[in-house]
Each structure stands twice: as C-alpha cells, then as structure tokens.
C-alpha cells in the first residue's frame, strides 16, 4: 500500500475512534442549535441502509418535530421528557408485527424490493420457515415475532447514532417510556398503520447543552473478549 493511502487509512481509523469517544448519552440538548437538513438526511440514510435479518427492513422512522406532539409524548415517556424539550430532532422507531415467514409483507418485499424471482422466493421462504419455526422458535406467540423485529431496529438505531457522532452531532437512545401509553397515542393518531407497527425504541438527536462531567468509562477489551 502506498504511503499516502496508508496515511489516509490511519486518519480514517482515528476519526472512527474519535467519534465513539465523542458520543455519549446526552442528557440535555441546546434548543438553540439545530441539525441541518442535509446532515439529518444523512443520519436517516444510515438507518435506511442498515442491515436486517433476511434484508426485510422491519422498521419505520417517525420524526417527531411538532411541539404539541412532543408535549404529549413527554407525559408518557419519562426517559425522553428532558430530551424532547431541546433536541433538534426526535425519532420513534417502529417495528413491524407482520413478520411471520408467510406474511403478505414478506412475500411482497422479496418480490418488489429485493427483486427475487418466484423460484428463489420459494427457496428462501422454506429456509425462513425453518429459521422461525425450528431454530429460533418464533411462532409460539406474537410477542416473540415482534421482539425479533424489534432487535433489527436497534441495528438501524446504532448506525444512525454512529453516523451522527462522526459529524459531531449528539444522540440519546431511549427506552424509558410506557409502552402501552405510547402505543395508544400513536394508534390514536393513525401512525401505526392499522396495527402493522408497534413502538420499539426512541432516540434524540441534536447538540449537547454542556460537555459531560465525567470521562467515558468502559470495561477493557480483555474483560469482554474471549478468543476460542
């Protein structure tokens, strides 16, 4: 590898590490600082381009910018209350509930989005059935299928947060909300597409009001990595 290419690679590696050291779960956001349309579009693209099991993209991103809706949400999402007041952008990530191997959504997704021929779809669905039915035993109840779909949304969430950090934009993942109440609110506004989706996780994006008071702390690699 040429010296200039090696230098660029080293710089890129350091930029990636710097972004992870920069990122922290921001507690309070500066309401006067807004993410540009271009930068937030990139964050959403990072979510859209994220991997998902079987490439099925079982998610939808609700961008909550209405002050009135934020106020209503804050009353039933204690973990988001402070963030909703100052965050430039706020996302509720929904997960699909119709993720059974033979659902209309999955078959249509394979045909129209992944452009698979019918014979390939038949083969993939056979393996997918075994994956859900035997290997992971997902078909026992609806909650198991939803939890599996919800896991996929966290991949998109992580990629959006990492993309934001690389641009110097703060973020906060949020699970501190009353599921039934948030579900009822979104359903009352027709945002769950007649039961197709349920809320999975939330995230705030913006610019920190002040720097963290404590340095980032993590276990060492030796404590969490085992080579076998």
Task: Explain what the structure shows.
The chain is of the alpha+beta class. It has two domains: 140 residues, NADH Oxidase, CATH 3.40.109; 38 residues. The protein is built from nine helices and four strands; from the N terminus they run ααβααβαααβαβα. It has a four-stranded antiparallel sheet, sandwiched between helices. Helix 2 packs across helix 7. The longest helix has 25 residues. The protein starts with a helix and ends with a helix. The model has no long low-confidence stretch (mean pLDDT 96).
Protein topology:
Layout: H1 3-22, H2 37-48, E1 59-63, H3 67-74, H4 81-86, E2 89-96, H5 104-112, H6 118-135, H7 142-166, E3 170-174, H8 179-188, E4 197-206, H9 221-224
Antiparallel strand pairs: 1-2, 2-4, 3-4
From the structure above, extract its key features.
4 strands, NADH Oxidase, 9 helices, 228 residues, alpha+beta
Order of neighbouring strands in the sheet with most strands: 1-2-4-3
Radius of gyration of CA atoms, rounded to a whole number? 20 Å
Structural class per helix/strand content?
alpha+beta
Helix content: 40-55%
Give the CATH class of the largest domain.
Alpha Beta
Describe what is shown at a glance.
Helices cover 49% and strands 12% of the residues. By secondary structure, it is an alpha+beta fold. A four-stranded antiparallel sheet has the order 1-2-4-3, with helices on both faces.
């Amino acid at each position: 590898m040429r010296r200039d290419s090696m230098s660029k690679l080293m710089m890129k590696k350091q930029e990636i590490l710097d972004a992870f050291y920069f990122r922290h779960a921001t507690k309070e956001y500066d309401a006067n600082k807004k993410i540009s349309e271009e930068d937030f579009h990139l964050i959403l693209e990072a979510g859209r381009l994220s991997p998902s099991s079987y490439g099925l993209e079982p998610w939808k991103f609700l961008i909550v910018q209405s002050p009135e809706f934020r106020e209503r949400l804050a009353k039933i999402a204690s973990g988001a209350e402070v963030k909703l007041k100052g965050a430039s952008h706020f996302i509720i990530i929904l997960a699909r509930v119709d993720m059974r191997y033979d659902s209309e959504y999955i078959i249509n997704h394979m045909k129209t989005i992944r452009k698979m021929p019918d014979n390939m779809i038949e083969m993939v669905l056979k393996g997918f059935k075994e994956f859900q039915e035997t290997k992971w035993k997902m078909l026992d109840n609806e909650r198991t299928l939803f939890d599996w779909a919800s896991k996929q949304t966290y991949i998109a969430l992580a990629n959006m947060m990492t993309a934001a950090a690389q641009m110097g934009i703060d973020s906060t993942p949020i699970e501190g909300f009353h599921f039934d109440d948030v579900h009822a609110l979104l359903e009352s506004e027709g945002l769950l597409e007649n039961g197709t989706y349920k809320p999975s996780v939330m995230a705030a994006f913006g610019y920190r009001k002040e720097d963290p008071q404590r340095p980032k702390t993590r276990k060492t690699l030796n404590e969490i990595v085992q080579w076998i």
